[in-house]
Amino acid sequence: MSHPIIEFAKTPSEHHVQELFEQAKEVQARAYAPYSHFLVGAAILTPSGNIYVGCNVENAAYPVGNCAEASAIAAMIAGGEKEIFALATICDSSDIGTCCGGCRQRVREFAKSDTAIYACGPDGVRAIFTMDQLLPTSFGPDNLVGFVS
Amino acid sequence: MSHPIIEFAKTPSEHHVQELFEQAKEVQARAYAPYSHFLVGAAILTPSGNIYVGCNVENAAYPVGNCAEASAIAAMIAGGEKEIFALATICDSSDIGTCCGGCRQRVREFAKSDTAIYACGPDGVRAIFTMDQLLPTSFGPDNLVGFVS
Amino acid sequence: MSHPIIEFAKTPSEHHVQELFEQAKEVQARAYAPYSHFLVGAAILTPSGNIYVGCNVENAAYPVGNCAEASAIAAMIAGGEKEIFALATICDSSDIGTCCGGCRQRVREFAKSDTAIYACGPDGVRAIFTMDQLLPTSFGPDNLVGFVS
Amino acid sequence: MSHPIIEFAKTPSEHHVQELFEQAKEVQARAYAPYSHFLVGAAILTPSGNIYVGCNVENAAYPVGNCAEASAIAAMIAGGEKEIFALATICDSSDIGTCCGGCRQRVREFAKSDTAIYACGPDGVRAIFTMDQLLPTSFGPDNLVGFVS
User: Fold this and answer.
1) Which of A22, C127, D9, D25 has the fewest CB atoms in 10 Å of its CB?
2) Exposed (0-12), middle (13-18) or buried (19+): which is A102, by Cβ within 10 Å?
3) Which residues from C are below 8 Å from D136, CB to CB?
4) Cβ contacts (< 8 Å) between B145 and chain A: which residues?
5) Mapping DSSP to helix (H, G, I), strand (E, B) and coil, where does residue D86 land?
6) Measured between CB atoms, which of A35, A64, A102 is closest to C61?
7) What are D57-103's pLDDT values in tens digits?
8) CB distance C139–B61 less than 8 Å?
9) C14-144: which CATH number, 3.30.365.10, 3.30.70.270, 1.10.150.120, 3.40.140.10?
10) Which residue on chain D is closest to A102 by alpha carbon?
């Protein structure tokens, strides 16, 4: 899953987007979603060219479940990286399925305002957003300056 | 806390906004935030004219804490109502402090796209948003149609 | 909902347990659980004799939902109190339904090791636990000493 | 990270416990915990002999953070496995640091009542628990039978 370090343009190459989609789709099939039956996959591309994946992990106690994006971010952090260059999510809803608000917040911690987020369906990318489009005027680490040390 | 049922215009009256601000500020002072020291208050106005409040409730295990908006929504649901007409949040950050993404999602479950959300600081309203401005192209119940029954 | 301040024995009186059960059952009926259809109510008795209630509040994005105990705790904190003397939860599962682990942690932040927790079903109390029985050798604020300031 | 499939006794071998400890410690160092400064690592051994790791991932909005155990479980599910044979967690608190209640619930979804859970500190295992010892009389999937389909 490792690639030579490359200079990215502001958005990932078509090749990388295709790889994000495919890896998101592959991990989506392994989602644990016995309660909602709604399988979600996510794949993160980092500036180093690595891809980290995750799927949703539900729980009988719904609020302690994990979204796919949270799982992919956890894989990225465990892999020693802290920056999201691009993200693809995939689900099977008939309309576009975007990240939930909780995940927009999770992604925002490690993304820039123009980080590209691809909302995919079974056949490919359905919509492209920037981080700032999905979570405008966001709450973030800056709000805690002077409070948390 | 109960008022006669009234016809709202699309946005709450100045009187109601002032009341939301004051009640949010009052409950903010009771927030339990020994870990972040970041106190947040929230107040919800429902179409019936009732106001429900909540503050953040932190926990030594950070992810099981509750945001102020979640607390206010819980009060509304316990009170037998399921629609947010307007919401005010208050925090003490130097810049505007908006709802985190998780709370935008929580509010979205009970709000409309044009529901007014007031971001307040100690001295009053700092910014006004609609639900759709804070969580555009949102994930929601419609995405689960055909999956969850 | 306010009572004269009284000296509690180590466990609440039968009268208080009955009141906890009834208030938990009443708020359970107002739970918002369109995804699991599993309605939960919770009622907290504080040392001052006040009772605070809450029910579960689900969300299309499952992990941002609120458990009933979290909702009741939020009401207690918003009410200006920080100690749980006793807690009753109610659900309709055929077997005993106890607090999920997340809620055991939430309760633990405001409880003592011998705080009484009543697991109720539609007809009344099914089992009684102490906090320490439900969350033995718990993680808690003490673990963060020296890390968080 | 893959081993030949072996017959486990009820508890993992000393070799496996040592490996769990070392991998948990290694990933702990990569935790993202700028708010609590409390780094946690987790390593899961599955019946196939694979080990999956994770660390905590905090967020400026505390409740959307991820615990280390949640991260390790997410890695396991993404890896196509659904059973926890043994789990080790590591943190740097002066006393024993056990899984928080939320994580006990997360682990319980994929564990058995006698699954071994090792609470480690910097120098090694400090305490051993079974799943049932950490989350007795647990809430779980059985409670939802007849409600969720």
Assistant:
1) D9
2) buried
3) 133-134, 136
4) 93-94
5) strand
6) A102
7) 999 999 999 999 999 999 999 999 999 999 999 999 999 999 999 99
8) yes
9) 3.40.140.10
10) D64
